[in-house]
Amino acid sequence: MKAGLTWIFLLLTTPMFAQLTVREQFEKIKTPQEAQKFIDANQPLKPTLLHLTLGKDTTLIDKRLLRQKKGDVFSVGYVTYLVLDGTEEVNYRSNYIFLDGSSLSPSEVDSLKKVILQKASEGTSFDKLSDQYTMDGNTTHGDTGWFFGEEMMPKEFQDAVQKHKKDDIFFVDVPERQWHYIVKKTYDDQVKKEITVLRANGR
Questions:
Q1: 166: left (phi over 0), alpha (psi -120 to 50) or beta
Q2: Where are the alpha helices (DSSP H) in 67-154?
Q3: Residue-range domains of the chain with CATH
Q4: How many whole angstroms separate alpha carbon 36 and alpha carbon 177?
Q5: Of 17, 46, 48, 159, whose Cβ has the fewest other Cβ atoms within 10 Å?
Q6: pLDDT at residue 150 tops 80
Q7: Taking the model in full, what pTM does it have?
Q8: Torsions phi, psi for 124 (to 5 deg)
Q9: Residue 153: what pLDDT?
C-alpha cells in the first residue's frame, strides 16, 4: 500500500519539476548577465547573442526583430528570440531663419514672416533667404545639420520639426525668449536603432 501511495505521489509531483520551455525561460531573463547564464547552461540549444542595426541588417527576420521592443519574446519555427536590449534615436534636419524679437517689434516680425514666406513660395531658395534675413549670424545658410534633443535647438523647435514632413515651411516661436523662426524641414527623419537579441533553438 505504501509503495502504491509513493508512486501516486511521484505521478502528481512530476509536472512540477518539468523542464521550462525556452519561451518560459526567456520571459524570466531581464539582464545581459542572466542571458549569459542561459547561454552557458544550454549549449545544446545553440544559444547566441545577435547585435542588429536598422538599415544594416536586412533579412526578413532581422527586420521583424528590429520592429520589436525591449522584452519582447517570440518564436519563428523552432527558434525563439528575446529582445534583450535596444536603443533608438531619431535625428532631424532643417533650414531656418532666425528673427530676434528683442530687436524687432511684433508687427515687424509678422511682416518679415509674410515677406519671407511669399519669396519662398515664388521659388527663392531657402538658403538665400536665410543668408539675407537671419539675425543670428550663422554661416551654414541656416542648415541645422542632423540634431537630436535640445543640445542645439530649443524644444519648441524640435517639437515642430518632428511634427512636420519634408519640404514643409512653418513658423516656430519661443515667446519667453522673443525668438522667432521660419523653418523648412529639409530631410526625412533619420532613425537610428540598435538591438541585442538572445536566440536559441526550441520553443
A1: beta
A2: 106-121, 126-133
A3: 18-90+192-201 (no CATH), 93-186 (3.10.50.40)
A4: 51
A5: 17
A6: no
A7: 0.69
A8: -65, 130
A9: 84
